[in-house]
Amino acid sequence: MKREITFKLNNEERTVEVDPSWTLLYVLREVLELTGTKEGCGYGECGACTVMIDGLSVNSCLYPILEAEGRTVTTIEGLRAASGELHPLQQAFVDGGAVQCGFCTAGMIMSAKALLDEKEKPTEEEIKEGIAGNLCRCTGYVQIVDAIKTVAGRGRT
Amino acid sequence: MGSLENAKFIAGGTDVMVQIRQKKIAPAHLISLRNIKGFATIETGDGLQIGGGVTHSDIVASGFIQKQYPALTDAAGKVGSRQIRNVATVSGNICNAAPSADTACPLLVLDADVRVAGPRGERRVPLDDFFLGAGRVDLAPGELVTGFRLPPFGQNTGSAYIKHTRRQAMDLPMVGIAVRVTIRIDGSEIGCRDAFCTIDTISNILRRLEEEQLRCEEVRIAMGVVAPRPVRARKAEAALRGKVISEALFEEIAEIAAAEAEPRDSIRGEAWYRREMVKVLTKRALLISVDRVLRPDDRIHPDRLW
């Protein structure tokens, strides 16, 4: 039995017909075709599916879609400016070689965004703690932490 | 819920959704607790009331809890990742009743009562009676946890939780130890508040505390992952209660706690190792708790590998 729900997605009101058993991740990727958000483990361990809900980072693979009703969801697609310019975090990841295979990147950037929204200039330890729920199997994390550092303290992102 | 067959309450969903995906449970209905008004509140009059919808991140963000009930802050900040802590509730952590549940040991030493609501009304259960075994709690069909109540402990009480893991993040504890102590010094003010602000050895620091006749008036010790459910080390508590703090006494308490632990061999750690770590961590958690009594306004209590 499908139901209609409405939520704000990347600054736009969206109404979607959903099956109550679906997760937010499923709706993002398969219904709304926003495939920037990835499915890694599906158990809330890897963080590839990280999005922001009402300003907080969340694993969308564990988030029942019906719970999104009336909430504000931001995905990696919502970070780019209307002009097409990349978000400073996205640009810093590109410039700093913090993207290799790219599978973790969207989730990693969403976690970094949530962290910088909460604290403008986190310490290196706080950055590591902030992305502790995001696995990367390519970079060894050094370039990722460095990329986040270059954006930290540049003002609200 | 009485009329719904095979329904399950869901709060943060970080356990329920995983169990569904692993096909360990197959509820026909999920009843969301996320939008209940006032369910996610922390109230601080007369102790502490934690609502059923309070997340681990909410706990970490509370300066009051950090100061009055720091063992709980220690634990809540170490559960899963940010993403998990932002949605996972403390009540869910308790209801899931994993032997490794991080918030269980702090809530045990902080004398938490569980508030339960159901078709037959409301009731309160001491947390120690709420755990029935691995994954089993004292909840009848249709009942749910609406929150926790922690009593006020007043002056000179400190608490701590140590989660012993192989990696710094995204890991379950192989042992978890929580301690709460209330310190009494006969007649006068505590004079050795700076006892830990030194690079002196722990033995010498403890000698200073002993000279000041610092007495352990009340104590709780709880251990995680050493039994099918989180347990109190009651014999160790009894051996410490009312005594003047000393290194020899702490050594003795640690041995008693380790003897009360019944850990098993598992992929995360062998039983003998867990037992040894119970000794080490009980002493460390006692030290941190005492340190927090002496310096209640300091946030930095460096780990001394004693």
Index terms:
heterodimer; A: 157 residues; alpha+beta; five-stranded mixed beta sheet; 5 helices; 5 strands; globular; B: 306 residues; five-stranded antiparallel beta sheet; four-stranded antiparallel beta sheet; 12 helices; 13 strands; 34% helix; 22% strand
Description:
The complex is a heterodimer of chains A (157) and B (306). With 157 residues, chain A is an alpha+beta fold. Chain A contains 5 helices and 5 strands. At the A-B interface, strand 4 and helix 3 of A face helix 1 and helix 5 of B.
- Rounded Rg of chain A: 15 Å
Mean pLDDT of chain B: 94
Number of strands of chain A: 5
Q: Unreliable runs of chain A, pLDDT <50, ≥5 residues?
A: none
Oligomer: heterodimer
Helix percent of chain B reads 25-40%
Shape of chain A: globular
Alpha-carbon Rg of chain B, integer: 20 Å
The largest beta-sheet of chain A arranges its strands as 2-1-5-3-4
Helical fraction of chain A equals 25-40%
Mean pLDDT of chain A: 96
Q: Note the total helix count of chain A.
A: 5
Distance between the termini of chain A: 40 Å
| Ends apart, CA distance between termini of chain B | 51 Å
**What is the spatial order of strands in the main beta sheet of chain B?**
3-4-9-5-6
Strand content of chain B: 15-25%
Q: List the uncertain runs of chain B.
A: none
- Biggest interface, which chains? A-B, 26 and 21 residues
Number of distinct beta strands of chain B: 13
SSE string of chain A: EEHEEEHHHH
Which class of secondary structure composition applies to the elements of chain B?
A: alpha+beta
